Amino acid sequence: MFSNMLTLIFTKAVMRGIYRKALLMLTNTKLWRFILLRIIPYIRFTMYYTSFRGWKYKRGHKLLQPGHILLCIDSQKLTTKLIGGTFTHAALCISKDDPDSGEIAEIVASGMEMAEFFDICRESTRVVIGKCTKWDIDYTHKVIAKCKTFSGVDYDTSFGFGVKSLYCSELIYHSDYEHRLEVKLDDIAGLGIKYISPTGILNSPNFEIVWDSDEEIKANTK
């Protein structure tokens, strides 16, 4: 029986290794890039809007400040099923109420883009605003300035380290160039490699939640 158990454990380990290698090989193909950037982001398992309401947006926007980190998820998106974890997207607030520039810097399929807090909310079912407890005012300005240097960068479909191309949570990681967040590098997707995930940012020891849309309760107006 003991030898059978060892054989089973060994077989499972080998299969996991094959699975991970196959996934990593796939991420370096043109087919994978096309599917990841042109198909997967647009698949939702509903034809209706997200459940996020305007009154939640107003309360969150009131608390939003430059340097805040946004984590969000759309529970009906295919990407949520594939990525796993508590959150599937991360972004950085670089300004607020500035008509000449976007409030939020994020990495999407088309690369780095500027968006508004409204844009994040309308495409999510849950949004969390957080901050790094180790970012003082001076360093926060430097993080934002660093973030802006990545303008024009492409989406990283292979999820590797480096700044030639980036994925959403990696933008936060490299903008925080002194790594004061101490981001957890968790292999949530089972690729066999360490990478920066939105959930990893959430679990970082120096990340503190400022506002959570799921904790909001609408006041009784009767």
Structural descriptors:
222 residues, endopeptidase fold (from Nostoc punctiforme), two-stranded parallel sheet, 8 helices, 36% helix, disordered N terminus
Question: What is the number of helices?
Answer: 8
What string, H for helix and E for strand, traces the elements in order?
A: HHHEHEEEHEHEEHHE
Indicate the structural class.
alpha+beta
Gap from first CA to last CA: 68 Å
How many domain units?
A: 1
Uncertain runs are 1-20
The share of residues in extended strands comes to 15-25%
CATH architecture: Alpha-Beta Complex
Described by strand count, sense and barrel closure, the largest sheet is: 6 strands, antiparallel
CATH topology call: endopeptidase fold (from Nostoc punctiforme)
Helix content: 25-40%
Shape: globular
Number of beta-strand segments = 8
CATH superfamily: endopeptidase domain like (from Nostoc punctiforme)
Q: What is the CA-based Rg, rounded?
A: 19 Å
Strand order in space, largest sheet:
4-3-2-1-5-8
- State the CATH class: Alpha Beta
Name the average pLDDT: 81
